[in-house]
Amino acid sequence: MLSRTEYLKLDKKIAPKSKEGQTLFLAFVVGGLICMIGQGVNDLFKLAIPSADEKLLGEITSTVMIFLGAALTGFGLYDRIGKFAGAGSIVPITGFANSVVSPAMEYRCEGVVFGVMCKMFVVAGPIIVSGVSSSIVVGLIYWIIGLLK
């Protein structure tokens, strides 16, 4: 049986070396590029539809970015971006689209209902439930605070 110090030495010797600096840099750059593309889409629609307000432009931009994330996943390119950029590819809205489309594609051979529709939210489902639940809790807290004033 190994002692704790012997185990830590062995672990340090065998474990692959982390490239934290490189990983953080790539995540920052790729995440920033995705956000720049989103801003570019927003700016293009602002020029194309001068009468549109910020809310509409945000909705259009979100829709386009979700479509791009889903399309890149469908073509197998988003996984390559993810391997290269790490967390930089999952943080923006395109990463959420990827987390919905990937399981749907993986299980498509099981059919539309039991494959695509059932497995589509395997990854994204818990995130959606957590977001909705926490927003309800925060809303109730604000409502209670408003009643106490």
Protein model, in words:
This protein is mostly helical and 149 residues long. The N and C termini lie far apart (63 Å). It is extended. It has seven helices and no strands. Helix 2 (20-48) packs across helix 3, helix 3 runs parallel beside helix 5 and helix 5 runs antiparallel to helix 6. The model has no long low-confidence stretch (mean pLDDT 87). Helix content is 79%, strand content 0%. It has two domains: 21-98, no CATH class; 107-149.
List the helices and strands and how they pair.
Blueprint: H1 4-14, H2 20-48, H3 54-74, H4 77-85, H5 93-106, H6 112-119, H7 124-148
Helix pairs in contact: 2-3, 3-5, 5-6
Q: Helix amount, in percent?
A: over 70%
Portion in beta strands: under 5%
Low-confidence stretches: none
Q: What structural class should be given to the helix and strand makeup?
A: mainly alpha
Total helical segments? 7
The outline comes out as: extended
Quote the average pLDDT.
87
Distance between the termini: 63 Å
Tally of individual domains: 2
Using the CA coordinates, give the radius of gyration. 21 Å
The largest pleated sheet is described as: none
Number of strands: 0
String of helices and strands: HHHHHHH
